[in-house]
Amino acid sequence: MQTIGLIGGMSWESSSAYYEALNTGVQQRLGGLSSARVLLSSVDFAQVTALQEAEDWDAVAGVLVAAAEGVERAGADFLMLATTTFHRVADQVAAAVDLPVVHLADVVAQACLAQGVTSVGFLGTTFAMSRTFFTDRIASHGITVHVPDERHHAELNRIIYEELVAGRVLDSSRRTVVGLISELWDAGAGGVILGCTELESLVRQADSELPLFPCTTLHVAAALDRALG
């Protein structure tokens, strides 16, 4: 079994979901008392969020590179960033270490194509929806990406940062997100990417008539394939 280098803390709720899913996945695949070999470096979410808001991406990259170098020295075989928004600096992190990086956007794009979906909606933080660093990477696989109208961005961001990051899962917010999924369907999406780990605690496949592509679940599955392959 290979050792997974996991850069987390963005948020710790997200990292907790990754850690649980990695270990549950190994136990399901190998049985018995098996668990994942994971080296986790957890950064300060407040620090990197403040740097993000200040558009100081070199400083964000510096924080994540230091974390990546730490798990590399500790013996990780490959690297994952347990975040969507901070994949903004994934290429800088990859360039700084001698480890393969399992890029979330590539994993999700491959999952969409495997189901024959070439037009998808994307839900995530305001930053991830309004910038193109993540959606362009998905589009590079031949997929058309739709995001909600800008008037919805602030509310979705509020749900993520004020509720889900704090572990609060509200039915009213679920209805809001399901409504956004319906709008993306009307816009031509044949599926919807849940582009934020915390959204997976709010919306499930049973809530949507469109196929959902949960980023964390897919990212973990790709990591397990690599670690156990």
TrEMBL record:
Cite the GO molecular-function annotations of the record: amino-acid racemase activity
Identify the keywords attached in UniProt to this record, alphabetized: Isomerase
For whether the record's keyword set contains Plastid, the answer is no
Q: Which Gene3D superfamilies does the record cross-reference, listed alphabetically?
A: 3.40.50.1860
The answer to whether keyword Isomerase applies is: yes
A Pfam match:
Asp_Glu_race
Q: Which family does it belong to?
A: Belongs to the aspartate/glutamate racemases family.
- Protein name, entry field: Unannotated protein
